[in-house]
Design a protein that fits this description.
By secondary structure, the chain is of the alpha/beta class. The chain has 8 helices and 10 strands. The protein has helices at 28-40, 48-55, 75-87, 119-127, 147-165, 181-189, 223-229, 234-254; strands spanning 10-13, 15-17, 25-27, 44-45, 65-72, 93-96, 131-134, 171-173, 194-196, 215-216.
């Protein structure tokens, strides 16, 4: 029985592509193998909206839910991930950098694998039953911005996505997993129903819908580890990464 949002494993992808250019690119064959495993074991990929509705007492979740998320909105999500998601009847959420739609992501080296979906492709993503979330206008480190700039990144991107796609944008993903209490408050005030993080500033003892932890799925992740990340052990993986992150931050402070 699902009693907390932490009972649901949330996975973070970036690219799904036959060309693996970095650790954030999952080969399309590996992604297919992961979906095959989920389907064969009775997992059901749900949307973040379904999770929020369940937490609000507005509906029950399946027995083995999992949430699949994609950061940035790469074109290969449409070309390679979407057909497989539909084949295995899985839902997913893509977090879109609204100011870069149809172009290349400005924060990475220009490469064909870094091309982003067009508005038309994003519309078809929605038509396929998938979900879209906000990921700012320009993909900055939000905690480094002043309040006016943060509001622009949050509100302008939300309004643009909703206008272009005629679809409610209910969830937000922090670029680089970077946020603080000020950013989190502004995300809530902007009208988002939840915020997706990674490991920084998340808690396994005090669940926060505006700091939902996710597990990264990397290029070299073996299937046995993927199986553990969606099992009842998924909290252990998150806890280990939280400890690792805090230790690294402590060492950085100590050594200047």
């Amino acid at each position: 029985m699902i009693t907390s949002m932490l009972d649901v494993p949330v996975l973070m992808y970036h690219r799904v592509n036959p060309v693996v250019i970095d650790r954030n690119t999952v080969h399309v064959d590996n992604f297919k193998q992961q979906l095959e495993y989920l389907a064969s074991r009775g997992y059901q990929a749900i949307t973040l909206t379904q999770l929020r509705q369940s937490l609000d007492g507005q509906g029950a979740l399946p027995a083995k839910p999992v949430i699949l998320t994609f950061d940035d909105g790469y074109k290969d999500n449409f070309d390679f991930a979407l057909p497989l998601l539909m084949q295995y009847d899985m839902k997913a959420t893509v977090f879109v950098v609204a100011g870069c739609v149809g172009g290349f992501c400005s924060w990475l080296k220009e490469h064909d694998c870094n091309r982003l979906m067009t508005w038309e492709q994003l519309g078809k993503w929605v038509e396929a039953g998938m979900e879209i979330g906000g990921h700012t206008m320009t993909h900055p480190f939000l905690s480094r911005l002043n309040e006016q700039a943060i509001k622009h990144e949050l509100l302008t991107s939300k309004e643009l996505l909703e206008s272009k796609l005629n679809s409610k944008i209910a969830f937000f993903c922090y670029p680089y997993g970077d946020f603080d209490d000020r950013v989190k408050t502004l995300v809530r005030q902007a009208g988002y129903q939840g915020g997706l993080a990674i490991y920084n500033r998340v808690s396994l003892t005090q669940p926060d819908i505006y700091a939902i932890p996710r597990q990264g799925i990397s290029a070299r992740l073996p299937l046995w580890e993927f199986k553990l990340k969606v099992s009842g052990c998924h909290r252990l993986f998150i806890g280990m990464r939280i400890i690792e992150h805090r230790l690294k931050a402590m060492l950085r402070r100590r050594h200047g």
